[in-house]
Amino acid sequence: TQLLEQSPQFLSIQEGENLTVYCNSSSVFSSLQWYRQEPGEGPVLLVTVVTGGEVKKLKRLTFQFGDARKDSSLHITAAQPGDTGLYLCAGGTNAGKSTFGDGTTLTVKP
Amino acid sequence: DAGVIQSPRHEVTEMGQEVTLRCKPISGHDYLFWYRQTMMRGLELLIYFNNNVPIDDSGMPEDRFSAKMPNASFSTLKIQPSEPRDSAVYFCASSSRLAGVDTQYFGPGTRLTVL
Predict the structure, then answer these.
(1) Which residue of B has its CA nearest to A103?
(2) In angstroms, rounded to a whole number, what is the distance separating the alpha carbons of residues A38 and B91?
(3) A92, B101: Cβ pair inside 8 Å?
């Protein structure tokens, strides 16, 4: 069974601070996705990374896929209240079934 | 383009009643997934289809749950009879082999409350 562990589980910071969320596994994935979910809504895809060592930037968000394709990180620079939400990582095997982490709940206080 | 559409958005029912959740995937997507999300267990995959055929239903809790996909644009998840422990948010998601099967697009979810 493939497992993805996310850390921290909860994170509460002030507006303007930087933060990093981690997603770790002992399994190798063909791709890794990051989603953000707001209350009352479904998860919304932020990014897909597929190559070991790959780094993708989305405005103030930086995503990295580990060299061995077992882990990933999400770094947010100068967090804003609009970044508040549940961040989920998911590991894919290109076979249809993805493994989701338990999520990191981020609260950014004004 | 329209995203994944789910209905109803909210459902309140009494224990023992039948519940049917509906999903319309993104046009052209050939994979469809049903998930359940709770605070205790997070996001759980219940079943997924490829080209309307169920591929893996190992996440379906028990025989009270059933899912169908009669065509490429419609799927249902049925619970009969419903129980209070089925209360959760149920999500449908779809993806495309061409665009990357692991990149899933989620619907807004159906919040089910069983009294």
Answers:
(1) B42
(2) 14
(3) yes
Distance CA A23, CA B45 (A): 19
Give yes or no for a contact between A65 and A49, defined as CB atoms under 8 angstroms apart: yes
Q: How far is A90 from chain B (nearest CA, A)?
A: 9
pLDDT (tens place) for every residue of chain A, 110 residues total: 668 999 999 999 999 999 999 999 999 999 999 999 999 999 999 999 999 999 999 999 999 999 999 999 999 999 999 999 999 999 988 778 889 999 999 999 99
Element (H, E) at B14: none
Is the Cβ of A88 closer than 8 Å to some Cβ of chain B?
A: yes
Q: How many angstroms separate the CA atoms of B28 and B47, rounded?
A: 19
Using an 8 Å CB-CB cutoff, list chain B residues near A95: 101
- CA atoms of A95 and A97, how far apart (whole Å): 6
Q: How far apart are CA A45 and CA A31, in angstroms?
A: 13
Q: What's the CA gap between B93 and B100, in Å, rounded?
A: 13
> Across the interface, do A30 and B43 touch by the CB < 8 Å criterion?
no
d(CA B106, CA A42): 6
A36 contacts A46 by C-beta, under 8 angstroms: yes
> Cα separation of A30 and A89, whole Å?
13
Give the pair of three-digit tokens for residue B15: 């224990």
Residues of B in contact with A41 (CB under 8 A): 108-109
